[in-house]
Amino acid sequence: MTGKTATTNHRKMITVRSVKNSGAFFSLLPIFTVTTTTTNHTIFLFYSTTPTSSYSSSYKFLPPSSTTLSPSIPGTPQLQASDVVLSFKEWFKTSSCALLSQIYKILAAQDESALCRLKLRLCEALVLEVLNYGKDVLSCLKFFDWAGRQPGFYHTRSTFNAIFKILSREKLMSIMVGFLENYMKQRYVHRVRFYNTLVMGYAIAGKPEYALQLFGRMRFQGIDLDGFSYHVLLNALVEDGYFDAVEMVAKQIRIRNFESDITCSILVKSFCKQQELDRAEEYLRGVVGNGLALNGHVVGVVVDALCKNNQFEKAGKLVEEFRKMGIVPMEHAYGVWIRRLVQAGKLDGALEFLKCKKLVDGYVPDVFKYNMLICRLLRENRLEEVCDLLIEMKDLQIVPDNVTMNAALCFFCKAGMEDVALELYDSRAEFGLSPNYMAYNYLINTLCGDESVDVAFRVLRDSIEHCYFPRRKTFSILVNALCRAEKLEKMNEMFLVALERNFMPSDSTYDKFISALCRARRVEDGYLLHGQLNGLNKVSSKSTYFNLINGFNMSGRGDIAARLLIEMQEKGHNPTKKLFRAVIYSLSEMENPEKQFLRLLEMQLSHHEPNPMVYNLFIDGAGHAKKPELAREVYEMMKRSDIEPNLSSDILVLQSYLKSEKIADALNFFHDLSRRRKIGRKLYNTIIVGLCKANKPHYAADILLEMRTNHLKPSLECYEVLVQLLCAHQEYYMVVNLVEDLINIGRPVSSFIGNVLLLHSLKTEELFGAWARSIDVHNLTPSSLMLGELIGAFSGCKAGKDIEIIGELIERCFPLDIYTYNMLLRRLCMSDMDHACKFFKKLCEKGYEPNRWTYDTLVHGFFRHGRTTEARRWMDEMFGRGFDLTDATKKFT
C-alpha cells in the first residue's frame, strides 16, 4: 500500500459536536475515541479505516506527539482545547499576514526608518504581495514610493500595473493623474519606458480614450508600445466596451507578431462581453485546432461568461471537453467553475467537483477558492464540511491568509468552541490576524450566549478601535446580555458610541436599555438617552414611554411623567387609562397637587378637542388617587364648558367619593342626581357596591330597597357583596330576606352566595336560626326552603346526613365549584379523616384541580386528629405542588 493510499484509507479524524448547533456534525463511526467535555461542546478524535462522508480529508489537528490514540475507556488521555489552539497557531504562523500587518502599521505611523530596519529583501513578488494586502490606498502609495527609492530595486511593469489597479479600483482619478504627471520626475523613471507606462496607467485607470490619444501621439513621433503595453491597452478597451478600437489594436498586435495566448484570452473576453458566447467557443476551438498554445485563463473566461448567463450545464461540459483534450492547463478554469458554483449556491456540486479533480488530476485550489467555499458553507451551517476543508488546507500546507483565519475563528464560534476561538483571537498579534466584521460578530454573539458578557464587551471595544462597529443584530444581542447582567455602565457606553457613529439601534434595543435603567432607579439617565433620540428625530416606542413614565412616577417626579404623557400623545402613541391613573396619582403625591393636576388637564385639553372622554380620564384618575374634590372640580368644569356630563362621568364622581369613604358626600351627590333626573340601574349598582366596600351595609341595604321600590333589578354583584357583608356583621335575618328577594326577582343563587352561606353555617348555628324564624313569619319560596334545609344539614342543626346527600342537595341549590368542595372536605375533616381522603380522591376523579386550601384542609385535619405522620406525608405532596401552609395550620408544625 502506497503512502498516499494509506493516508487516504487510514485517517485520523476530528469532529466537533456542539449542543448549541444541533445540526453541526453528523455522527461518525469511531473505533477509537479520545473525548473531552467542556461547558458547551465535546471534541471527538476518531480513528477510522473507511471514509465516513462524501467529502472528507485527513484530520491532523494535533502535533504527532500531543496525544496517543487509545480505546475510549476511563483513564484515556484527553484532547484539550489548548491542543487544538496550538495546532492552528502553528498553521497560522506560516502566513505572511504578520509581516504585512507590521509593514502597514509602520506606514500608518509614517516611520520610514522603521521600515528600513525590517531589512526586507525587495523583489517584484514581495512588492506585489504587500500591495495586494493593503486596504488603505495612501499606505499603498507610500510603500510603492518607498520601494522605488531603495537601492537595488526597480519597479517592473507588474508593480506599476498593481498600483494603477489600486488607484483605479478606488476611483481616485485625481491621484492617478497626479501620479502620472509626476511620474517622469522620479529617479526610477529612466528604468522603464515612459510612454508605455503612461498608456498603461491611463488604460488601467479607466481612461482608454486618453490612452488611445497618447498612443496616437506616440505613433506620430515614431514611438511604439511594447507587447505587454499593447495587451494592457487591448484589455482596457474590452473592459470599457470600445469594441471598434479593439479590432484595430488587435490587428496592430498581429502585425508586430506580439500575438500570444494573452491576446486570445482578451479577444475571447471581448466576444463574451458582447454576449457572443457561441462565437467565443468557436474561436476557442479554432485556436486549439490550429495547434496554437492556450493558457487555462481563456477557458475560464468562457466558463465564467456561460455561468453568468445561467448556462451551468453547458459550462460544465466545456470544462470536461478541454480537460479531456489534455493540452490546456485547467487549474484556472477549475477555479472559475468552483467559484461560480459556490456563488450560485450549488455547494454540493462544487464539493463533488473538487473531490473528483483532486483524485483524478491532483488539482489543489488556491487559498481564495478554499476561502470562498468555507465562507459559504459557514453561512449555511455546514460545519462538518468546513472542518474538512480547514484540515485539508492545513495538511496540504496551503498558506492561510486573513480570510482563512477569520473563517476558522467563525467556525470555532459556530461549533461551540468559544474557548478555542477566544484564545486564537487573543493571540492574533502572533500571526497578524486582523478580524473582520464576520469574525467580530460571531465572537461577540458566541460569548454573549456563553454568558461571558464582559469578554464580549472587550471584543466590542477592540472592534470599534479597528473601525468595525457591530451589526444591528449583534448589537442587540450584546445589549440583551448586558441588560441581563445589569452592566448598565457598559450599556451606556455602547449607546453613546452608537450615537457618535450615527448608528441607530432598533426600537426594542433602546427600550430594553431604558427599561433596565428605570428598573435600576436610574430613570434620569434613561430620560437623557430619550432626549438624545428626540434630537435625532427618532420616535421612541410606546413601551419606552411607558417605562419612563412609570419610572418617574415611582421616583416621585409626577411633573416629568406628566410632560412625557403629553409628549407620547404628540408622537402618536395612545396612553392607557391605567397610565393616566398612575400619572395623576403621582401628581397627587407632590406639593401643590391641585395645581399640578389642573396644569396637566389644561395641557391635555390644548391637544384634544374638549369632550366628555378627556374629562372622564381625569375624574377617574382623581378618584383612584383618592382626591374626590379634584374629581368634582373637573366635573363642574365640564358643565361650565357647556359639556354635559354623561353617565360615565356621574359614576366616576360617585366612585371617587366612595373610594375615599366620603359617604355623606357620595349620598348627597347621588340624591342630587336623583332630584335632577331619573336614576338608572348602573348608578344604583355603583353606589350599592361602593357602600358595601366602604363597610356600610345598612346604607347599601336601604339603597337596594329604594331600587326595588323603583321596580329596578339590582345586579348579582350587589346581592353578592351585600350578602357577604351582612354575614360578616352577623345580620343573618337581613341575609335571609335578601336571598329571598334575589330568588323572587328570578335570579339564581350564585356559587359565591351559596359558598358564603355554607361558610357561615359552619361557623355558627345562628344563620339557620334566622332561616327558621323567617319560615314562621314569611311564606318562603321552595328554593329558599331548600336552601334553609341545606344550611341546617351543613351546620348540624338538622338530622345528620351523608356528605354525598349534602352534595346532591347543594347541586339543587347552586352550582358547585372547588371552593364548595373545599368546605365539604372541611366538614368531613371535623369527624372522619378516612372519609375525607376518599372524598379528595373523588374530587380529583371529577376533574377538579385541588388548590392550596384543599391540601391545607387535609393537613390541618390530620394534625387536629393527632395523625402526624399522615399530616406530614400530605404536607410533602402539598409542597411538591408549590403550595404553602396557612398560618392557622403552621401552628401545628
TrEMBL record:
**Does Chloroplast show up as a keyword for this record?**
no
Q: Where are the PPR repeats?
A: 191-225, 295-329, 366-400, 401-435, 471-505, 541-575, 611-645, 680-714, 817-850, 851-885
- Write the record's keywords in alphabetical order, separated by commas: Repeat
Q: Which InterPro entries match?
A: PPR_rpt (IPR002885), TPR-like_helical_dom_sf (IPR011990)
Pfam families, A to Z? PPR, PPR_2
Similarity annotation = Belongs to the PPR family. P subfamily.
Name of this chain's protein: Pentatricopeptide repeat-containing protein
Record organism:
Ilex paraguariensis
